[in-house]
């Protein structure tokens, strides 16, 4: 079934128009999503940890040791989470694909009626969609693809997606997590390093938030301010709690 009708025939004039028109849609959504998840947590969690340890009067060396340990553990945890999420998505698609294949074979008339119903929802009249339904019934693989996309709303996942997601999120987390720790590597006194860490990390959160808003279609300035505010609240809370527990 998978090998049937793999080629698509397009009229020469339409093919010429398609070749002339270059789509400019953003297509790296999965990668951007991974980077957003990784960098967002990577900037915020170690930032809050470093602020909390500074509030507890820890030395810069302790902050660095604890911070690097947290970045390593966080990268593994976040990467594993991304892997399991992508793997679950792929498993779900495989289960639904198998079920849809069985239904096309066992109840083809019902599945054909579902195709007609889907097309009717787009305003296509019965005399217009009847040839489409008949054409799909002659092409099982195309019929299956149609049902997966338009009935179930599922796109075939990249088989490499799980590992790619794990890698992307883990690397993004490490890159984000090292930012608030950098001042502690060069400034021995933790409280002085914390001030530099706050300035650098807030700047990084603003830049990251702006980029996130730009690539996701939201207002970049609003996204930048929201992202920086979340990071500032997290670090302030950690610092305050540490001061209360360890004056």
UniProtKB/TrEMBL annotation:
Vacuolar Fe(2+) uptake transporter. Keywords: Ion transport, Iron, Iron transport, Membrane, Metal-binding, Transmembrane, Transmembrane helix, Transport, Vacuole. The cytoplasmic metal binding domain (MBD) is located between transmembrane 2 (TM2) and transmembrane 3 (TM3). This is Vacuolar iron transporter. InterPro entries: Ccc1_fam. It is a multi-pass membrane protein. It catalyses: Fe(2+)(in) = Fe(2+)(out). It is found in: Vacuole membrane. The keyword DNA repair does not apply. Belongs to the CCC1 family. Homodimer. Pfam families: VIT1. It comes from Hibiscus sabdariffa (roselle). The chain crosses the membrane at residues 166-187, 193-211, 223-242.
